[in-house]
Structures are given as C-alpha cells and as structure tokens.
Amino acid sequence: MCSSDKSPSSHDDSTQFRRSRFGSSTGRLSWWFPLAGFVSLLWFLARVIPRPSRAAYPCQQVAAPLAGGFVVWIAGLISSVFAYRKGIFMLSRSRIALAGACLVGASILGFVTLMAAPDPMVMASPATTNDPIGEAKGVNPGRVVWVHDADATDWDGPGDGHWWEPEHTRQVAVDLMMSRAIRYLAGEGDEQGAWDALIRLFNVTHGNGDVGYIVGEKIAIKVNFVGFLDTGDSGNVDPITYDLVDRLDYMNTSPQMMLALLRQLVNVVGVSQADITIGDPVALFPNQYYDPLFAEFPNICYLDSRGWFNRTGMSPSSVDFYWSNRPSNVTQDKVLTSFAEATYFINLANLKSHSGGGVTLCGKNYYGWLRRPPIAGYYNMHDSLPSQDPTSGSYRCMVDLMGHAHSGGKALLYLVDGLYAGVHPDEDAPIPWDFAPFNGDWTSSLFASQDPVAIDSVGFDFLQEEGDPRLYPQMAAADDYLIEAAQANAPPSGTFYDPDHGSSVSRLTSLGVHEHWNNSVDMQYSRNLDPVGGQGIELVIVRNGLLFEDGFESGDPSFWSGVVGG
User: Fold this and answer.
1) For 474-494, what is each residue's pLDDT tens digit?
2) CB within 8 A of 172, min separation 6: which ones?
3) What is the largest distance, in Å, between two alpha-carbon atoms of the chain?
4) Residues ≥6 apart with Cβ < 8 Å to 206
5) Rounded CA gap, 501 and 341, in Å?
6) CA geometry: angle 174, 472, 417, nearest 5 deg
7) Rounded distance, CA 479 to CA 484, Å?
8) Could you tell me if 497 and 508 are in contact, meaning their C-beta atoms sit under 8 angstroms apart?
9) What is the C-alpha to C-alpha distance for residues 176 and 219, in angstroms, rounded to an integer?
10) Is the CA virtual torsion 283, 289, 293, 295 positive or negative?
11) pLDDT digits (tens, 9 = 90+) for 194-245
12) Conformation bin of residue 129: beta by default, left when phi > 0, alpha when psi is -120 to 50
C-alpha cells in the first residue's frame, strides 16, 4: 500500500548551432532585445498583478530585469525622439538656443537609451566536436538510444483538442518506443533480458553483487510537471478539483510515456504496484494525467505536493542534502522520503529549451527533486544557472543534484520524453521542429541511457540544432554543467563536489561522458566513428522501427549479438 507522506545540409564541423533559420546573429539580436523586453514585461505584469507574491518566483526574477530595462529603454527612446523633433521645429523658427538645447538633450537621451537597453544574452562560442571528456557509464558505456516514430503523434496543434488525449498521442506506438529504447540500450533481444541486464549492471557497480531485481525493492520515478507547479490557489491546476484548467497544452511529461514505463516495470520486471512511486513533488498531479494511469494501476503511489485525492504527498526524510559551494545562512535541504526509501531511481525528463538554463533535460529535472519554497531561506538553485552566471568553469549546483547518493547514486535509467518539444516558460504549447527528420512535425521521440551526462549531451545537441527564436540553447555556458559533471572529480571550476557531506569529505567521481556530435546530418559521436577505440558517446538511432547504424538505414537490428526484431 502507498502511504501518504502528508504534512538539411551538413554543417561546418566547428559550429553547433543553426544560423540560417533566424538570419545572421547580428540581425536577429537587433530585434531580439526589444522583443524580449516587451514579452518579459507582458509576462511579468500578467503573472504578478493578480498575485504580487509571484515576483519572488525564479521565472519572474529572470523576467524582471529585462522588463525593467525595456521600460527605461522605451521611455528614453520616446523622449529622445520628442526632443529631437522639438529641436528641428525650433531650428526652423530660427530659435537657435532652444533648438541647440533640444538637440543636445536628444543626443544625451539617445545615449542613455542605448546604455539602458536590455542586456544581450551572452552567446556561446562554437563547440568542439567529437572531443569526449569524462567516463562513460552504462551496460554499454556511453550509449544513448534515440527512438523516433512520427506515427506516435497525430495532433494539429492548439484548437485540435489537446496533445495528451489518446486520439492525438497513440499509446500503442509509445509502448513500442519504450520497448525498443530498453532493448537497444541493453543490447538484448527481449524486454525481460534487457531490464535484467540494466539492473544487474546497477547492482554490480553498487557493490550488491551480480543480481537482478528482488521482489520488494522500491523504484521512484521523477517526472517533469513544471506546468503543474503548486503555486497555491492560482496555478494551472485547480487545487480544489485537481483539474487542469490553464496552459492545457504545455509540455509536461506525457501520460502515454508514463504509462508505457509503468507497464514495463509491472508487467515485465515484476515490480509490485505498491513499490512504485511516480510524480513530481513540487507539482500537483492533475486528473487528466492521473486518471488513465490509475485506471490501469490503482495501487501505484502517485506523488505530488499535497497528497490529496488518493495521491501520495511529499515529506522530507532525515537524509541531508548539501551544496558544494557551501552557502551560509541557508535552510538545510532534506531528501524526500519517497526518494530516500527507494532502491532504484528513474529520471523521466522532457525535451525543452529553458530561459534560465539554456536547456532543461535530466539534469534540470532534479530541480524538482527537492521540495521547498523558493523564498523560505533555502539556497537559490537558479543562481548557478548560465543566465545568472554565464562564465564557463563555474560552480553548477546541478552537479550536486546529479551526484547525491539518493539521486544519481540510485539512478537505474535516464529517459527524455521528446514526443512534444517546447520552450520553457515562454510557450504554452509544443513547437514543431524543422530540421530532418522532423521536417515541420512534432519531435515524436524518446531518448534513453544509463549515462546522465551522455543523454543530456545528446539532448543538448538536438536543442542547439533546432533552437528557438529566443536562442536559449545558444546562451554561453549552457553546457557548463555537463562539463563540470563529466569531470566532477577534477572540474574546471575547482569545486570539491560532495553533496553527501557538510564539508569536503568524499569528492564525486566522473558522472558520465560529454561530447558534441560531428554534425546534425550524420549525428555521429566518437563511438559511432570508432566503435573499437571510441571513448565517448554512442548514439543508436531507431526511426519508425528501423535501426540506423552510423546514420545509414540498416533495417537489421541483429548486428548486435542477441538483438532481433523491431
């Protein structure tokens, strides 16, 4: 029983992001500044006026400087234009002194306006390709499986119902995507053998011996429900009814992907429903997502922030979590009970760009792993995001979150739900992608790995290639957390990463391998280019049931020993 815890041309190899879609970097930035400021102002006013306390939310803290800068900029622009026109008028009337004063004033105001323009986003330098760092993890080290099935999604966009409805996201197709991801990740021909291989590798590396799953062991799954954040009485989910009432098409972890994973764990691995916890402790679990899962698995623990309506509420355990930059005068963080009691952890993230982090994948998904108010004296995790600190080689709290004994230390599997990609927090609905093989359609993808750095590195390359009009994935230091995590034993920042102790006692080892692909057409990493000697990432591509080896259609999954069928 679940207890309620109440209380398409190849790029130059030296560049990693597109330019053609948005024009030159100078041209696109010239309109991005006022547009970003205007949008930030609208967003800030729309969110804060109904409820002033929202001004302390991290997203509003990011928007406020841009909004304020835009107000100053537009006021200066209007004033300088007025002064200039007044000066010309006075000059035409031969009132030289007044004309001169107006024109000088216009010049001063114009200069001040330029100085007050919203600061441009610091852009990343071109990344080096196929230069792996760190130590690859997994039963097949560094392997990331990308399953793409365009038939999994059939939605015409807002106005055509909602993407998460069964008529728009096909459960049968998603189930098959999950099956393929697990089998190709392990390199096994059947689901049971694949799960056994993944679990045995986990137990061997954790000193538990060469054993598979043992009945009674608990599994916790952290999904990304940032669109359902529990913000009191004004969020997107009605706290009284638990119905999703606003931003209904926002990109959260899909119910179809969750159901596909639960079917694997219960029906294949043999995990008791009561030993599985799934959810997001900072969010509510709305009925539209909960109902199809509960209908099939009523005894699973559905975790959310409150624990109402048969959900499992969050509560802190006695296990401490520490930040390796050792902030002073902050409230002590505690690992939540559901995660502290689990034997295994599965990170089920989303494929999105992010205004603060550049991207949000498995690493950023850990931000919801700790449940605490952002203004209650706790360390502000957003301070170490690249939007706040764009300097490469800086402390990144995401490394602590990825490396703690009860988070990454228990991680059996990393998944990225890429059925519908989008932009956080700006967009209310997913965005189709242009580059091949998406070609103006939804991303319809699932990524899987046992290496947390490798899977985010691949997701990062995809997001940088497609990008978004705001260029979030291109911001400077967006991949700095991956560099720090890959070299956690000797990071460029010099940080002694040790989230398990209150002082520097036991330094984290490398959390995985990081590199960038050669280009967005071939999508090859070092183990694709050199299967024998490569030390980095291996991207295994499965599209519409066909295996693509080194970017070319094979149609024959059996080129790995024991892998058969689609």
Assistant:
1) 999 999 999 999 999 999 999
2) none
3) 94
4) none
5) 19
6) 10
7) 9
8) yes
9) 22
10) positive
11) 999 999 999 999 999 999 999 999 999 999 999 999 988 779 999 999 999 9
12) beta
Is the pTM of the predicted complex or chain greater than 0.70?
yes
Tokens of 8: 């398409």
Burial 149-177 (b: 16+ CB within 10 A, else e): bbebbebeeeeeebbbeeebbbbebbbbb
Q: Is 474 left (phi over 0), alpha (psi -120 to 50) or beta?
A: alpha
Prior bond to 425 cis, omega within 30? yes
Q: Where are the alpha helices (DSSP H) in 161-211?
A: 171-186, 191-205
Calculate the alpha carbon distances from 143 to 412, 429, 430, 449, 534 in Å: 14, 31, 27, 6, 12
| Count, residues in the chain | 566
Q: Summarize pLDDT for 506-564 with one digit per residue, the tens.
A: 999 999 999 999 999 999 999 999 999 999 999 999 998 777 654 433 434 333 333 33
Place of tokens 């694997």: 264
Distance (Å, rounded) from C-alpha 51 to C-alpha 21?
38
- Domain layout of the chain by residue ranges: 25-116, 133-559
Q: List the structure tokens of 464.
A: 């940088």
DSSP 374: T
What is the SS3 assignment for 202?
A: helix
The stretches of 124-266 forming alpha helices (DSSP H) are 171-186, 191-205, 255-263
C-alpha separations of 169 from 154, 397, 442, 545 in Å = 6, 35, 11, 17
